[in-house]
Amino acid sequence: MTTSEETMAAPPVRHWPALDLSGVDFDPVLTELMREGPITRIQLPNGEGWAWLLTRYEDVRLVTNDPRFSRKEVVGRPVTRLAPHFIPQADAMNFVDKPDHARLRRAVAPAFTARGIERLRAGARRTLDAAVDALLRDGPPADLIERVLEPFPITVICELMGVPEADREDMHIWTQRILSSTHGIKASERAKLDMEAYFAKAIAEHRGADGEDVISLLGAAVGRGDISEAEAMALAGPLQIGGEAVTNNTGQMFFVLLTRPDLLDRMRSEPALRPQALEELLRYIPHRNAVGLSRIATEDIVLHGVRIRAGDPVYVSYLAANRDPDVFPDPERIDFDRAPNPHVAFGYGAHYCAGSTLAKLETELIVDTLLDRLPGLRLAVPPGEVPWRRGALIRGPEALPVTW
């Protein structure tokens, strides 16, 4: 795969428009790009120029774990991108390289250890049971997103972050506006600034704190001089925003299960299979639209006979990697018996999702609770009438009408 010999000319640049996709259909543009070869060039709707795209599993893991591909170098560059408002921010953990990335991650690591996440389990279960109690009390039909899949992750991530209950609705509104272009670029930028100001104030108020929540950990780290105020603020926002991705992912999972009774029946009848089944659903569902964050090559590198030059922007597609037939035989099929299943739904390398353990805990609780407490759960409308989010970076149903 990696060789110093350049044997091929650069492929043509393909335009990748912003698509509003319904259901869990795989992006048709990405499908074509994967067919064209392991390395292609793309132009997204915003930013400038073009970028390389790598879609094979082995290449995705190479790029995401190779220091020659830098996130830090993206800052200040108008790299082609999907969203007009999603501008790389200096000091944010997503846009720093080693060793600074490890230093920033250490500041919040205690909240994301297995012990840190487990301390949330009992409270999360109570929150979820209360939501389902209210759902059963009010009776069908109901919107599963509105009643369970949206409020539950908001509560859990805010508990982890240390955001008090009175501020959670504002936090949710800011997150949704940052993750979507439907309100316009000014509304998205305003939401980002409002969230940053909130966390800057909260972190300053927690200097010297000894709490286990993220705001307290960041305040303590700033107080010790481990990280700067700007770094702390830039850390908090993406962690808060990432916590709400569980809503979209579980929404997609339940759409799959409620439209595939064979899969749903198996998960109900074989509870021990659920952890493995959830890993397969994480591999299969299309988490996002297009691609996420780019990197910059810091030196010339030849992949598949094509030269990536120093300074070139590079994207990888985790969605494509999770459909690589060399790693996942019959990748379009949902196979609950798939083993091994080394999917990269949470990324790979140094920038592997910090909140993956939390997301898995929430997903496990949601699936167990809904399958066990609502044995007759089913869609209340035909699958084609389920509305899907428009103009969103993260894919998922806007509502999920159900009955039982």
What would you say this structure looks like, in words?
It is a single chain. With 404 residues, the protein is of the alpha+beta class. It has one domain (13-403): Cytochrome p450 (Orthogonal Bundle), CATH 1.10.630. Helices cover 46% and strands 8% of the residues. It is built from 16 helices and eleven strands. The strands form three sheets. It has a six-stranded mixed beta sheet. Strands 5-11-10 form a three-stranded antiparallel beta sheet. Helix 7 packs antiparallel against helix 11 (229-243), helix 9 crosses helix 10 and helix 10 (214-224) runs antiparallel to helix 11.
Number of strands: 11
CATH topology: Cytochrome p450
Helix content: 40-55%
Q: What is the number of helical segments per DSSP (H or I, 4+ residues)?
A: 16
Q: What would you call the shape?
A: globular
The CATH architecture designation is Orthogonal Bundle
Largest sheet: 6 strands, mixed
Strand content: 5-15%
The end-to-end span amounts to 52 Å
Strand order of the largest sheet: 1-2-3-9-6-4
CATH class: Mainly Alpha
Annotated CATH homologous superfamily: Cytochrome P450
Pattern of helices and strands: EHEEHEHHHEHHHHHHHHHEEEEHHEE
Low-pLDDT stretches: none
Summarize the structure.
Helices cover 46% and strands 8% of the residues.
For this entry, give a set of tags.
single chain; alpha+beta; Cytochrome p450; 6-stranded mixed sheet
SSE topology sketch:
Blueprint lengths: L12 E3 L12 H9 L2 E5 L7 E4 L2 H8 L4 E2 L29 H13 L1 H5 L2 H18 L3 E2 H6 L1 H11 L6 H11 L6 H21 L8 H11 L4 H15 L1 H15 L1 H9 L4 H11 L10 E3 L3 E3 L2 E3 L4 E4 L1 H4 L34 H18 L4 E2 L21 E3 L1
Parallel strand pairs: 1-2, 3-9
Antiparallel strand pairs: 2-3, 4-6, 5-11, 6-9, 7-8, 10-11
Helix pairs in contact: 3-10, 5-16, 7-11, 8-9, 9-10, 9-11, 10-11, 12-13, 12-16
